[in-house]
Amino acid sequence: MDDEDVLNFVAITSCDPQKAAQYLGLTDNNLEQAIQLYFDSPNLEFGVTSAAPQASTHTSSTAHNPIEIDSDEDMSDAGIDTQGNTPPTHHGTVEDDAAMARRLQEEMYGGGPETDVRAPMQRTTETLVGPGANWGPQDSEADIDALVQEQMARRRLPGRPGIFNQRTTQTSVWDSAGADSSARRRELATATGGASESSNKSNMLAELYRPPFELMFQQSWDKARDEGKEQEKWIIVNIQDPAIFDCQILNRDIWKNNDIKLTVRENFIFMQYAKDDPRGQQYINYYFHARDSQDAYPHIAIVDPRTGEQVKVWSGPPVPNPVEFHAQLHEFLDRYSLKANAKNPVATRKPERKKVDVDRMTEEEMLEMALQNSLDNNKGPKDDDPDALTKVTSAGGKGKAKAEEETVEATESATNGSVDSPFAQISTSNPHTEPAPGDAKVVARIQFRGPSGRPIVRRFNLADPVRRLYEWIKAENPWEGKQGEDFDLVCMGKNLLESLDSTIGEARLGGASVMVEFI
């Protein structure tokens, strides 16, 4: 027997070495099992006494009780043969290992009336529950599948929880500002993985940047859609990257604003996920196409629970201030409705980007385009706002405000007996006479690039209105086969139709290149 095991046993149990050796002997020198056996049954009666006490006893009594050595036959009868070997089975006074084990088992589990027998453990039946479980009482408020998914998601969440990466906790604690402060502190510690308990400042920061647990809908995406259809509420989703501070600003300023919280509670079902949260992957895969771009965070979107259509998006910085965001929410609610008889705005087709003909661009235009592309390349993609397309009219791709202005102008023109557009009002019988070459401060040379690709240069006075460019092309169209067709004049990406009454000098067209695009 290893003396080190005996010493360790004594150090842990504080029993005497002799008893430690006996327990180790019962467990075949397994220290852990011996210690466990000792704590379960510290008062075991051992049938085998040690040799040392026997020797001392006999020594002390030799004066009155001399030792008698039995004959070989007596030793054989006692269970030991003449060669000193113990037979496999014997019934002597010395207790073998098997007998001791049976006795100990009887004492621990099935002893007589004098032993303290522990009652048998009650039989139980348990059921393993996995994803997709749909059993349980139909009227129960608990969603078994949602609870399972939440437990699995908690185990798969990447990264350690902290002040800026808090985990979802019970909503009941956060519903009321007058809730038990100790309970709120405990839940905050759970959400931050204990980080909020390191100091009072950490606790204050954790509370300041705490996600809006009291607003969050904690069940699955399908449950959220069902809830939205039943209560006629929109679904508003916030996807965050904890490493981007703009997302933390949302938790600090937007979702804690009382007016915004009241609006969200009354009209929306709110869901918030980190970008790596498995519970939000269904939404991210279907709707959040720019999820790999840091410039697309924070991401907020409104989804129609009936059709699953994404109808409004806020993507990327800058984060709107609370007053502005609250106004945008109410503007959305004024324009959209979940009532069965309501007619919501319909998004028009996203305007296609015009193909740029590099061969027809001037050096200045190419330089400007290269500079713009360089600026755009430093920014990642963002998700487009579908609601912005509902404000674009199909005619000309002008904004809603611009379309309303033109509607008013058209109404006024109709009152005066004319409904012609600004382009139609330009004269077609006013040919242009070029001024003599002169001072560049008075005369400007303008290069026109049409469909043929060959540039045409004409001189104009800087004091002439931009309208003269249109009048010249309408009266003397130099491009064969294009006579009588409508056209646009574009310079540096700007449609000159918006500057008809400005002078050529004011429009900075001196020495410029103007694109003639026939419609």
Automatic annotation (TrEMBL):
GO biological process, one term: proteasome-mediated ubiquitin-dependent protein catabolic process
GO molecular function annotation: ubiquitin binding
Pfam family, one: UBX
Gene3D superfamilies xrefs: DNA helicase RuvA subunit, C-terminal domain, Glutaredoxin, Phosphatidylinositol 3-kinase Catalytic Subunit, Chain A, domain 1
SUPFAM superfamilies: Thioredoxin-like, UBA-like, Ubiquitin-like
UBX domain span: 439-517
InterPro entries named among the record's database cross-references: Thioredoxin-like_sf, UAS, UBA-like_sf, Ubiquitin-like_domsf, UBX_dom, UBX_domain-protein
Biased composition (Polar residues): 51-64, 165-174, 193-202
GO CC entries: nucleus
Protein name: UBX domain-containing protein 7
Residue ranges of the region described as Disordered: 50-94, 159-202, 372-422
